[in-house]
Specification:
With 337 residues, the protein is an alpha/beta fold. The chain has 2 domains: 198 residues, Metallo-beta-lactamase, Chain A; 127 residues, Rossmann fold (3-Layer(aba) Sandwich), CATH 3.40.50. It is built from 9 helices and 19 strands. The strands form 3 sheets. The chain has a 7-stranded mixed β-sheet, with helices on one face. Strands 1-2-3-4-5-6 form a 6-stranded mixed β-sheet. The longest helix has 14 residues. 50% of the residues are buried. The C terminus is likely disordered.
């Protein structure tokens, strides 16, 4: 195996020399392959963008039609020859349209996983492990302390609080892409059939999910409801909105947050979260390590989080590992995962 044939690291980020393109580049490049639509992976300005059809639609919705020189889409499992490399995209289970990038040359198969999770999520295609020589993994929750509970049990905590405090609104901090739609779907799966109220910043992407066939049930814009009507309501909003005057229109709100970071009690206290919900769209420690084993990779590159801990774990099992420390990855997800 010669990893340098298929992947190397440049100031812009991960680069495939055989195909002459970058993956999730940190700045505009001539050709970018993008794993998913979060802004710390998908940035405007690439002369040519390649992604799944869903990610391409998300990118256009967030940045506008003129944000990229050209856009090419590739369905899951479809192969494309680019230069001396063959590329295909397989589901990453992170958010709608998220993909792992599978790269093959004559000597090496590499998988760039992007962000991924292994838990069931009714709003996106599930993660598919791919055997490879080189595996590039995130490590957002790459410490043994992070072991995520079942999302259903966390949603049950929210619904129990709604029943206990019917006079109060329950305002849940969620990120606009992925987390908002997943939490809505989990509420529906738990039998919650009332309208879910949304901050205006969430409506566009919820509409996009529904256009892609993800049923979210009755939704309403929070700004259109009067204060009395919000009693007992579940309200979803970006975390930043719950810390400013926007939340004051809600009747005595219970401030909640849905994030893997809610495992850290100090972080919940710092953000004024009364009801922490550990619901993550990233793999936890056990899932990260199990995925590395499942790929059979002889070499692992680690980025986007607790890199050293996962590298140490790999070394203890005879797997070559290196931390990448790719600039520009992680800021957005650390804030609002």
């Amino acid at each position: 195996m010669r990893a340098g044939d298929v992947l190397t690291l440049t100031p812009e980020g991960l680069y495939c020399p055989a195909g002459d393109f970058h993956i999730d580049p940190a700045r505009p490049t001539p050709r970018a392959v993008v794993t998913h639509g979060h802004a710390d992976h998908c940035r405007p300005g690439a002369a040519a963008l390649l992604a799944t059809p869903q990610t391409a639609r998300i990118a256009r919705a967030r940045y506008g039609e003129g944000a990229f020189g050209s856009v090419q889409t590739l369905d899951y499992g479809e192969s494309l020859r680019i230069g001396d490399a063959t590329l295909r995209l397989v589901p990453a289970g992170h958010v709608l349209g998220s993909a792992q990038v599978v790269l093959e040359t004559a000597r090496t198969r590499a998988v760039v996983s992007g962000d991924y999770k292994r838990r069931d999520d009714p709003t996106c295609a599930p993660f598919e492990p791919v055997a490879c020589d080189l595996f590039v993994t995130e490590a957002t929750f790459g410490l043994p302390v992070f072991r995520h509970p079942d999302a259903g049990s966390e949603v049950a905590k929210l619904l129990a609080s709604v029943a206990r405090f019917p006079e109060r609104a329950h305002a849940v901090g969620v990120y606009a892409l992925g987390k908002a739609q997943r939490l809505i779907a989990e509420l529906r799966r738990a039998g919650y059939d009332r309208p879910i109220h949304l901050h205006g910043a969430l409506t566009k992407l919820c509409a996009l999910y529904e256009a892609e066939g993800v049923a979210l049930g009755p939704l309403a814009e929070a700004r259109l409801a009067d204060r009395a009507a919000m009693a007992g309501a579940v309200v979803l909003a970006p975390p930043s909105a719950l810390a400013d005057r926007w939340a004051r229109r809600l009747p005595d709100p219970v401030i909640a947050a849905a994030s893997g970071w809610m495992r850290v009690r100090q972080r919940a206290r710092q953000r004024g979260v009364e009801l922490p919900m550990i619901v993550s769209d990233h793999a936890d420690w056990d899932e990260l390590t199990e995925t590395i084993v499942e790929t059979g990779a002889a070499e692992v590159w680690v980025t986007h989080g607790a890199e050293e801990a996962l590298c140490h774990w790999c070394a203890g099992r005879g797997v070559r590992a290196r931390p990448l420390g790719v600039a520009g990855l992680g800021e957005e997800e650390a804030e609002a995962e």
